[in-house]
Amino acid sequence: MSSGSGEGWAAVNRRRLLAGAAATTAMLASPAVVRAQGAALKVGVLLPRSGAQAGIGQDCFRGVEIAGPILKANGFPDLQIMSADTETSVDTARARAEKLIADGAQLLVGAFDSGQSSAIAQVAEQKGIPFVINIAAAPPITEQGYKFVFRNFPIAGSILGDAFVNQKEIFAETGVTPKSVVFLHCNDTFGTAMKNGIGAVMPKFNMPYTIKETISYDPTARDLSVEISKAKATGADALLVVSRLNDAILLTRELVKQRWSPMGILSMGPGWYEDQYLKTLGKLGDGPLSFVPWYDPNKKLSKQLETELAKKYPGINLNINHVYTFEALLIAADAYKRAKTADPKALADAIRATNITDNVSAGPGISFDAKGQNEKLKNVAIQNRGGKLVTVAPKGSTNAKPQWPMLAYDKRR
Amino acid sequence: MSPDIYLNVAVGGLLTGLIYGLMALGLSVIFGVVRVVNFAHGEMMTIAMYIAVVLCAQFGFDPLLMMLPIAALFFVAGYIMQWTVINPFIGRPEHTQFMLLLAVAIIIVNSVLIVFGPDAQTAQTSYAFDSFAIGPLIVDATKLYAGLAAIVVAAALFAFFRFASLGKAIRACADNRVGALVVGLNVKRLYALSFGLGLACVGAAGAIIVLIVDVTPSLGPAYTLLAFVIVITGGLGSMSGALIGGVLIGVTEAMAGLFFTPSAKSMFAFAILVLVLLFRPQGIMGRRLS
Question: C or N terminus of chain B, fewer CB within 10 Å?
Answer without folding.
Answer: C
